[in-house]
Amino acid sequence: MAADAAFPLPVTLLTGFLGAGKTTLLNRLLLQPEMAGTAVLINEFGEIGLDHLLVETLDQEAVLLQAGCLCCTIRGDLARALEGIAERVRKGQDLRRVVIETTGLADPLPILQTLMADSATCRHFTLDGVVTLVDAVNGLATLGRQPEAERQIAVADRLLVSKADLAGAAGLEALHAALRGLNPGARPMPAGTARAADLLGCAPFARRDADLRRWLDAEAWSEPSQGHHHHHHEHSPHDPNRHDKRIHAFCLNFDTPLPWDGLGTWLEMLTATRADAVLRVKGILDLEGQAQPVVIHGVQSVWHAPTLLPAWPEGQPRRSSIVFILRDLPRSVIEEGIAAFCDAASGQRTIAGG
Fold it and tell me: Which strand (E) or helix (H) includes residue 261?
């Protein structure tokens, strides 16, 4: 196979707070056939990294990033490390995917921005999904103290719960409730039984037909709505199971096709003015004049190019579903903004058409 045909390589971001068991999970996953040809990038907080000595790979493709915590200071280091992997592929090395294991203190947002916005990186790599581990014993207490842990959970495509056998039924139930409050779109899974196949290809969420069907299922988020009105699913800010008061997630569903000129303009304005508040947006759209579903995916001010899917799943509703994961931004701002811009776009076309 020609080197160019290998690109873009899928990248999985493996994150989770300190002690959640990321290295243990990675060691187990790397032994599975689906992970053959995996390059592993590892970051350890501090001047001396240790985790790279603990990760066992079949082909010794573990690379330690040296710039300290995986945050804004490491974006250049990450881009250079990925370019080094791309160069090895161009020279014929059989590398098929990349896993980035972050330090437990990492904010995942700058990493996602690098994967989605750096032009050189985007030519050779594509985000395959965010997998977040949560410690069932300490996770609930951590959420009350550490905003990084909350962001790691909020942006996840897959949530894995470790040490569930040590937490007890009541503790596990309380943790699951908190996870649903931060990220109702990612169903928690036991880390101990997770397979590589469960974690690969999970973002954009619509890449798997099963994920797309679940996403479009009314029971997953909310009841269907009429026109440009919508319902939502969100935990009340007074919910005693909700540990985070600043981050919230909800989904808006639209049963009639949306005008892209209205919705797209509003999304651009939102992220231009309030990027700090937009942790992640992902959606599947039924757009006016477009027969195929369109996937959108954004992190703060960075947007992946909209992607056309082959077709709507047979037997599933054809409608738009957009998930917003926000910090310090009321849901009403989103609802009112979408309604105003989409109504204005539809009205302008009506006037122009006579």
Answer: helix 260-274
